[in-house]
Amino acid sequence: MRRPTIADIARRAGVSKGAVSYALNDRPGVSPHTRQRILAIAEEIGWRPNSAARALSGAAANAIGLAIHRPARILGIEPFFMELVSGMEAVLSAAGSALMLQVVADAETELALYRRWWAERRIDGAIVTDLRAEDPRVGLLEQLALPAVIVGGPTGVGSLPHVWADDAVTVTETVGYLVALGHKRIGRVAGLPDLLHTRHRDAAFRAAGTTYAVDTSLVISTDYTGDEGAHATRAMLSTAARPTAIIYDNDIMAVAGLSVAHEMGLVVPRDLSIVGWDDSPLCQVVRPPLTAMTRDIPAYGARAAELLLDVIAGTTGKALGVEVSHSRLTPRGSTAPPSLSG
Amino acid sequence: MRRPTIADIARRAGVSKGAVSYALNDRPGVSPHTRQRILAIAEEIGWRPNSAARALSGAAANAIGLAIHRPARILGIEPFFMELVSGMEAVLSAAGSALMLQVVADAETELALYRRWWAERRIDGAIVTDLRAEDPRVGLLEQLALPAVIVGGPTGVGSLPHVWADDAVTVTETVGYLVALGHKRIGRVAGLPDLLHTRHRDAAFRAAGTTYAVDTSLVISTDYTGDEGAHATRAMLSTAARPTAIIYDNDIMAVAGLSVAHEMGLVVPRDLSIVGWDDSPLCQVVRPPLTAMTRDIPAYGARAAELLLDVIAGTTGKALGVEVSHSRLTPRGSTAPPSLSG
DNA sequence: AAAGGGAACTTAACCGAGAAAGTTGCCATT
DNA sequence: AATGGCAACTTTCTCGGTTAAGTTCCCTTT
Lengths: 342, 342
What we know:
Distance between the termini of chain A: 74 Å
Oligomer: homodimer
Number of domains of chain A: 3
Largest interface: A-B, 69 and 67 residues
Strand content of chain A: 15-25%
Number of helices of chain A: 14
Radius of gyration of chain A: 26 Å
Strand order of the largest sheet of chain A: 2-1-3-4-5-11
Largest sheet of chain A: 6 strands, parallel
Order of helices and strands of chain A: HHHHEHHEHEHEEHEHEHEHEHEHEE
Structural class of chain A: alpha/beta
Helix content of chain A: 40-55%
């Protein structure tokens, strides 16, 4: 089956290619009658514009790029990216834009990928996640003048537009809640230490310790896997002055921590309170259900996609930094006042 | 920053566009010396082929399409797709192909999407998952002659190449194992009933009951969410003759089932054995760790991507149906002989 | 020395759209 | 009746590559 072109339509309608192009693009220069006829023929033979030809004539690629630089084994388990992608998709597909997804093994590859996508005109813009300190991607994207939106911030984003949530508020609220319950020593099982948002959370966690005058010195960094989450939990619970509450940077580690507590003979929440970041169905499926820091990830992705489309369309206005609502604590059965014996 | 074109290279090198094209594509017609010079200039000014221009001249789009037709809330929690995608990515990015991902709301949209991708020449081929009975996508893809590989089968695939695993063997092995442990009544919490692989598993499950002379009549279909998994488990455990073992179609439902058992005062595995399909880290993070039917999902995706690339290149040979190794049972703490009181 | 052959190029057409510029033909003016 | 103006087209060029079909020029052969 050959793909129909405007030349085919022109031949059938007995007009020139140019007339067909005008008719199909709602531009003046063809009579309503001819336009109707051309549209009918286009519909009949199932014509769609060849995106390559359009792109060659300077049109948009109608695709945006997302490079994900995390090990495959984490991608599979962390709902975050899939939810982010599904939120982005909702906005993009409504705008007729596709999503080019590529999993990259390292930072070098990611940079090369942006260069290639840009040079090949494959994408109209990119969405950048997992911002690191002095992230080389920021400079590259600025230099290429490739429209880009960072999911994260608000620092380290250079001049790029970004969508961010104030994790510090969430951390402070959560620590405050645990302190109100009576906890005095709170641990934190953090994510990848070179991610900027991990550092923000670390800083907020330490600061909250000072604010509420409790011990928040116990922080262990991990790679987000359940394995490392379990290991970190074991380490924390094996210290002489063990914490009575632990905050985890994702829910899979929180669940792992729950199991470790159980394995060590501790009862949650009596002997240990557990809070997980990001509230997937997983949290409600384990016993006790996990208290979690909930946010609307699809909405987060949708907002980033919207902003990127705005940037591409040049209708950004001044909204370079868009703040979305921060994660809110959803208390469930895994948090309670510490037992007196602790 | 203007993107350099071969015309720029030609001007600098003092040769024609044609010569540059020959040089850059390793085709005869230019002297080694000139070729070197052209390549050096291309490198220097950072030239990359404009993919649109190439595509216009009949070249490949260097992208393959994947439409995912599942509700967003399931996507986030089911590791299957992300793992599949990461396996596909490994093969595709090595071949210089990108992945166009789109989440679609319904079957109609998915069909329209394939038509559009095909007409717009955006993709060289497609990967189809979640095959249904009399799936209209099969006919459409055959009609469009769009290279496509189905993840699933081996029935209902029409003339399309496919990559499949024999779920029936896995079901039979698992039921056999439970029977060997002494179970006489085994339940099954199935996935979406209109998916072909759910039907295959259903049929194999029923057949295994006959083979081993045990009761496998208890089957409840769900939408893969933990909620429905919990609900189905509650229903099964509330029947007069409740099963002593339940097999779940994904691990999130298995975990939900574990919680329900706990909530109903049953001890796993003493009072109830639990087996989950697909072995994500989640299974090892709960207590007791879940016995699971393990398969290498990234490898599954990689094999599908390889086959698609072969089909696109026209080097398929006769490998229209590629069987990958079926899931194998990984026994862990959630399965044991049933207690006599049951 | 003329002819043949092939390497090393150049020229120009082409892919399928978009868009500027050019061409009709008709109607209303004056 | 000549002119202007405009709608409704057609022609042609453009995007950035690929590629078939020339064109040179040099070297070998007889």
